[in-house]
From TrEMBL:
Domain of life: Bacteria
Molecular function as annotated in GO: endonuclease activity
UniProt keywords, alphabetically: Endonuclease, Hydrolase, Nuclease
Protein name: HNH endonuclease
Keyword field contains Hydrolase: yes
Keyword Nucleus set for record: no
Transmembrane segments: none
Residues of the HNH nuclease domain: 53-94
Length: 160
């Protein structure tokens, strides 16, 4: 299992890797377990235990079932966090689901397929049409208001 972790020093067992990671980590108030890697920069991915990424080593050691074909994501956005409950791998099924496009736009119009790609068009023509109509209406109101403002005062125009 650990052999799938790229760059990980081969002498580690799951047990010794867990101990190693915990010895180099500090628990923060927000629950993150921040690991200290070789570099001096914090808040970025850390290399540990040979040349392994700490969050990937932590996933393999604490969570298990690491799949090297998939990324290990941080739910907490702290890239140097190795808290197992903050780490996850997105399964292939989930990736496929998120790639599926919704069949209606955000305003509920049925989306049109683009014949050349077989995928839905990015922009919704019905929404575009509505947007243009609203814009023309606003313009019409503004023109009407501007005209009203330019009507000269009858008294003044009589004097000039
Ligand atoms: Zn975290
Ligand atoms: Zn629409």
């Amino acid at each position: 299992m650990l052999s799938r972790v790229n760059g990980l020093s081969r002498h580690f067992t799951e047990d010794s890797l867990r101990r190693y990671l915990l010895e180099r980590s500090v628990r923060q108030a927000d629950g993150c377990l921040i690991v200290r890697g070789y570099g001096t920069r914090r808040g970025v991915y850390q290399k540990v235990a040979g040349r392994a990424w700490a969050h990937i080593a932590a996933y393999a050691a604490f969570v298990g079932g690491y799949d090297p074909a998939l990324d290990v994501d941080h739910l907490c956005d702290a890239r140097d966090c190795v808290e197992p409950t903050h780490l996850r791998q997105v399964s292939r099924a989930e990736i496929c689901r998120t790639r599926e496009q919704p069949s209606t736009c955000r305003n509920g119009h049925d989306r049109e397929a683009d014949e050349s790609t077989g995928r839905y068009r990015r922009t919704c023509r019905a929404c575009n049409r509505d947007g243009q109509r609203r814009w023309r209406e606003r313009q019409a109101v503004e023109v009407a208001l501007a005209r009203a403002a330019y009507v000269p005062n009858p008294g003044e125009s009589a004097r000039t």
